[in-house]
Amino acid sequence: MAVRGTPSWLGDQNAATALRLLLDHGPLSRNGVGERSGLSRPTATQMIARLEDKGLIEVVGEESIGRGPRAALYGVRNDLAYGVAINVDQEGVRSTVVDLAGTRHPVAHKAAAGMPAHRGAARDVAQAVLDACEAADVDLTAIRHIRVGVPSSVDPRHDELSSVAALPGWSRKSIRRQLEGALGCEVEVDNDVNLAAIAERATGPYSPAGTFALLWVGYGIGLAVDVAGTVLRGASGGAGEIGNLPVPRGVPGADDGARDLEGFLGARALDRIGRETGWAEDGFARVLAGETLPERVCEVYAPRLAQSVIPVLGVVDPEVVVLGGPVGRAGGDRLVELTTRHLREHTRWDPDVRLSAVAGDAVLDGARTALGIRLREALLARATGSLPAADHARVLAERLRDID
Questions:
Q1: CA 115 to CA 347: how far, in whole Å?
Q2: Could you tell me if 16 and 50 are in contact, meaning their C-beta atoms sit under 8 angstroms apart?
Q3: β 186-191/143-150 pair status
Q4: 179-193 in b/e burial notation, b at 16+ Cβ within 10 A?
Q5: Which residue of 22, 260, 269, 325 shows the fewest CB atoms closer than 10 Å?
């Protein structure tokens, strides 16, 4: 490893600078690297040569530079490392391959109803990796990183999930160590709503320094707060677990027997509201099938949503409150309008309430975004020589295939 301040160390830092430029701007010539970095042409040539020697870039084309010979264009090799983004929830498991180029690979899906009765964390994740690689036609040995979203908070201090109620066969204890030991590569396990907030930040029109709160309503209710691009997770990973808060007194519907906000707003509550308003007995199942909430349901539901976000407004005071999750999106603009009205009429806060900007699987998109950042970091570490040279590809392939 190069020592800081030596020519070798400086060469590594210059190489990393060139690699960042290629990642940010796409293929560049030596001249292009020199112009964007502000360094001389000879230095840019050395930077390119160093990256070529490390096997991190390749010639991907040519560009005309006038009457002289055409200049080679260099791009980052996309086959160096891949990740797999995974979303495990009550509906099943969805997974997709992630690469350095940000390619939208196919999503593999296994419905919970069709999964084996004998499940577990290692089995679920291993099968998801295998399915994603098959769908994308990517060699299993290229996988380096895995990001898993789960409907549970994740305590980073004790490597522990707060709940496995929606994860059949999973253990709460030592979840990351358990998965990395079984699969033989880096695995990150994250809360589903936190990942959805990462996707929201990447998709929505939010100012770099802005703050938003994502209120996620699905089987239960969850919250993620993004401050200037950083999701607040809390000391135990439990920031945003508002489903455990008691139902406030005086809220319309507070006498329906629900003890906490999850019981007040979750799937069972929506089914109950559906029956009481004459809409449907199976309202939540209809939402999952893509049906929108009727006006009469939104009118009952909006005050409950508004009340649930008041503690967040009082503590964080975000500029924007985003309604997400299957129920939030099913309510559409009308639910946004009614929730906004209730907040303005009954509280001192007046945030911008809006629908989630993420269409489709926000949790999987968030895992994909986080993995893209991780792949980039790992590649830059290779450029500076700070990443161990050990190749875990063979270990990963063998362990995945051994998990039954």
A1: 46
A2: no
A3: parallel
A4: bbebbbbbbbbbbbb
A5: 260
Give CA–CA dist 45/49, Å, rounded.
Answer: 6
Q: Record the tokens describing residue 225, joined without a space.
A: 């707060």
The token pair that represents 326 in the structure block: 């299957």
Q: Which of 169, 121, 197 is nearest to 129 (CA)?
A: 121
CB 126 within 8 A of CB 383: no
Sheet holding 320-324, edge to edge: 230-231, 221-227, 211-217, 320-324, 352-355
Spatial distance between the Cα atoms of 59 and 333, rounded to a whole number of angstroms: 49
Distances (CA, A) of 252 to 9, 236, 249, 283, 347: 65, 32, 9, 20, 15
What type of residue sits at position 367?
Answer: A
> CA torsion 70→76→79→84, rounded to 10°?
-150
Element (H, E) at 224: strand 221-227
* 162: three-class secondary structure by DSSP: coil
- Pair 120, 339: CB distance under 8 Å: no
pTM for this entry = 0.91
Read off the tokens for 23: 């990642």
